[in-house]
Design brief:
Elements lengths: L2 H13 L6 H20 L4 H19 L15 H8 L7 H23 L15 H26 L3 H23 L1
Length: 185
């Protein structure tokens, strides 16, 4: 169920010709592959997909970094004209916002994949459980998903581009459906 909105978001990224979004597009393709494999065939272990998603999030975050104003000045302290130049023509959110959204989406999807597949403590011998276990991971994943959906809606409402709004909304829908799937099954 969550693959359909994720595919819509992937199409929105691919259709956006205004900016070079190769990194975000690559991240979306990796996320779709992980979701499809986990839902359909499980050729690759969900733990490995989690590692790939987290590594991709780190790379995306490192490359995109934070949006900066002139001379390394944080966006909040930058003059309005510099913010507009960095953020986008309409004063909206720029590539840094999309990169941060994609990177945080990868982290949330990694947590959801592990929580949905029961990885993270199941099958360990008695007395050898460490960390939060499956139930704790499920709660953490649900909280992350709720925060991500709320953040996606807030960012989508501020975005001047229809394609950006559709991408943010599609990712929010995909995460929400993925978080609800255990309840719907």
């Amino acid at each position: 169920m969550s693959l359909a909105p994720a595919a819509v978001g992937l199409c929105c990224l691919a259709a956006d010709r205004r900016r070079a979004r190769a990194l975000e597009l690559s991240a979306a393709v990796i996320m779709m592959a992980a979701m499809a494999d986990t839902a359909i065939g499980q050729v690759v272990s969900p733990v490995w997909w989690c590692a790939v998603l987290l590594l991709t999030a780190i790379v995306l975050g490192a490359v995109r970094g934070r949006a900066r104003g002139p001379v390394g000045m944080p966006m909040a302290a930058a003059p309005r004209r510099a913010v507009t130049a960095v953020a986008g023509a309409g004063g909206g959110l720029g590539g840094a916002a999309m990169g941060a959204h994609a990177a945080s989406g990868l982290v949330v999807m990694a947590a959801l994949l592990l929580a949905m597949t029961g990885t993270g403590g199941a099958g360990a011998p008695a007395g050898h459980h460490h960390g939060t276990g499956v139930v704790g991971l499920g709660v953490i994943a649900a909280v992350l998903a709720a925060a991500y959906v709320a953040g996606s809606i807030a960012v989508a409402m501020r975005s001047p581009s229809r394609l950006d709004r559709a991408q943010y909304g599609a990712m929010a829908a995909s995460v929400a459906l993925m978080a609800l799937e255990p309840l719907l099954a």
